[in-house]
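Subject: sequence -> structure tokens, single chain

Hey, anyone have a minute? Need the predicted structure for the following. Not urgent.
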Amino acid sequence: MNSPKEIFFVLPKGSDSLADLYACFDAKDKIEAFVSRFKSSLANYQIIQLEINPSYQSNKYQNPYYVAIGKYNLTPYENYIADMIEEANEALNEKFEIVFYPGFGIEDGRFYMHVFADDEKAALEKVIAARDAAILKGEWQNAWDRHQLTS
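Reply:
Had a minute. Here:
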């Protein structure tokens, strides 16, 4: 018998804690039977579906870091090891995002990026290099122009 690829958690609506877990199943039909049986006590519930043994991209020798910096600063707003599978995948792609917030100017934007690195210092160096390259290519200005159109 093959092991299931997905697992389903039945939790109170709005909860994200396994401490509140009602039940866990390997098939949707089992959830339906459970909910039917206990519907009077499960008035507000949610089902969270997760993949068992998910595949993800990784780097065997470095950790994925999430770094946020400004246009000119060398001190990060955020710099930490990312712990989500999606973040590891983003680090592999080394995509970045330039974000502007209402009420602030072009100089106050933020540069967000996931990267694989040996440590926080190396992650920051990679992100600074990517930010500087983006500025030289005009991507900071392009992001500002798009922000002006939507605000």
